[in-house]
Amino acid sequence: MPVVSALPLATDALERFSHAGGHVGWEEAAHQGGRTVFVRKSELWNAARCFSVAGAISVVGCGVSLAPDGSSGPRTTLGSSVVPDPTGPAFQEGPSNGAFDEAELVDVAEQSRLIQGRIAGSDDVDIYDLGFVSPGDRIIVTMSADLTLDGALALFDEDGAALLVNDNRNVYLGRREPFIDVVASRFSSSCYVAVSATPTLDDVGDYTLVASKQPDSPVSEGRSSTVLLVFSGGDDVRIGRRPAVDVQPFDAEGIHPSFADQTDQMVAELVAMVREDYEAYDINILSTSEGDRFDGSMSRVFFGTFDPGLLGVAEGVDEFDADQQQEAIIFTDTFAAFSQIEPTVLQMAQALANVTSHEIGHLLGLVHTRDTLGIMDITASLRGLTADQAFRASPLHETVFPIGDQDSIDLLLGTLGGDAELADLKRAASEERSKVIFDSAGLPDRSDFHLSTCGL
Ligand SMILES: [Ca+2]
Ligand SMILES: [Ca+2]
Ligand SMILES: [Ca+2]
Ligand SMILES: [Zn+2]
What we know:
The chain has 6 helices and 21 strands. By secondary structure, it is an alpha/beta fold. It folds into 2 domains: about 10-65 and about 220-450, no CATH class; about 90-215, Jelly Rolls (Sandwich), CATH 2.60.120.380. The strands form 6 sheets. Strands 3-5-12-7-10 form a 5-stranded mixed beta sheet, with no helix packed on it. Strands 4-6-11-8-9 form a 5-stranded mixed beta sheet, with no helix packed on it. A 5-stranded mixed beta sheet has the order 16-13-17-19-18, covered by helices on one side. β14 and β15 (about 245) form a beta hairpin. One calcium ion binds near residues 299, 318, 326, 363 and 364.
């Protein structure tokens, strides 16, 4: 699935992106006649969030290759034809179910259940507790709704951490109703399914869910992945349905003349920083700067070129890394916007690394959060982006879902596999770092440099 990440840029470009730029929900942004246009996330969420960031907004197949049934791989929601049979009596929404501790218990242990409710607008979230889950329990939730309600579904564990957020079952097949299909990998005393309107929409309407739980599905231990960082340029690089671009070899001078002789150093630093972010997981971060080459079976991140509104763009939010050959671009020349805060080479490398790890995160299934110290954040200022970000548990950005968190560490361990002990150490280090209060005296106000981490 596509997500395009775009980090809107500075000042006026940033200004224009400031409302939506951060919207994970709005996968695609485009300038049209001086106006920034965002495509409803619901139109893009599931399918490859492909977007074009310039010109017309078209949601079409991006680089994700789909099987005839629309599926793109194992565990993706795209192509599943599963429809649980509702056998139990319908559960009717009660008066108050808008927070995890108000969730209404709908036990699906013995039988699948119909749940009927109403979304009364953008403020309304309905939360149901499907009860205890064990490793291997497969949770499936389908949703049908009035035409006036474009809904979104999310499944959360007992801590309110999202297992999956889904807004569209299959964009390619024109299926806009959301769909959840997840196999639990650990015990949880509660498993919450939450319903809302697609974020940023004020839709109203009745809905019906069918929720089921089946035991004894195989629990994935993760599947390793490889990403090649490409600093050597590339011809006809196409991200989703964006126009193909020729990417020139990376040259730090394109960011600022003062970096002219520091290309090699900047590359070496940023490669090391990205590796550090992914150190705990089974993913190989290769680099053309070290002689590595594309072998046809890896994802690639290109470094170069310019985009008027984005720092980076990725092919999509690829749930569970179903597609292991995807592409992203870090628009390095766009980072010239950082010159207004006069970053050092290391700070510049860090900003590039943060955005790189962010776009790779999308290719592994992560969505946007609101936490300036987190890699999937889209709220940090330019200055904030020059500080080290890390994978951590962070609140979902409101354009993704109105409640809940994303624990990037758990999700990456589940998707890729890795060293859980090391991941825990890094989590603790990140929490320590978050206690540091930055002294912002004398620095430009964040609003001066608002940027969303990505065009996603
Ligand atoms: Ca309601
Ligand atoms: Ca992927
Ligand atoms: Ca980092
Ligand atoms: Zn993004």
